[in-house]
Amino acid sequence: MMTARLDSVCKFICEQGNWKVSNLQLQKILYMAQMFYMGRHGGVPLTNATFQAWDYGPVEPSVYKKVRMFGSAPIQDVFYEARPFKEGDERRADLKEVCDALIPMRAGALVDVTHWSGGAWAKNYVPGIRGIEIPNADIAAEYTARLNDKK
Questions:
Q1: Domain-embedded: residue 1
Q2: 12, 59, 65, 71: most buried by Cβ count inside 10 Å?
């Protein structure tokens, strides 16, 4: 299956959150959705996002640039390239599962989730330095590491 448009994934997350999702929340949920999907689908990414290890966790820079004007306020619909997911699309089902679990969480709790010591962000983060890419292989490996950590 092809990767989903980044705008489509972001819009879906915001819709699931009734358009009360902040930039920080969107970034963390987007990252966790990518990790979850890759883990379940043999490393195949949900979207062509490129995450970087920033101070507050994984960030997709193009999404950050698109929504930073909202600050900590809820994001409004700026996802002009978005296309809706069809009802039977497995990407939609996996994304909904992630949204249902994470949207109710406070932004600070989401930061804690993505700062997990065994995760891809922690492996790639250098304090104060932006632009360090988190490799997809590390993101996919985080899914397996999280599963093993729960055992």
A1: no
A2: 59
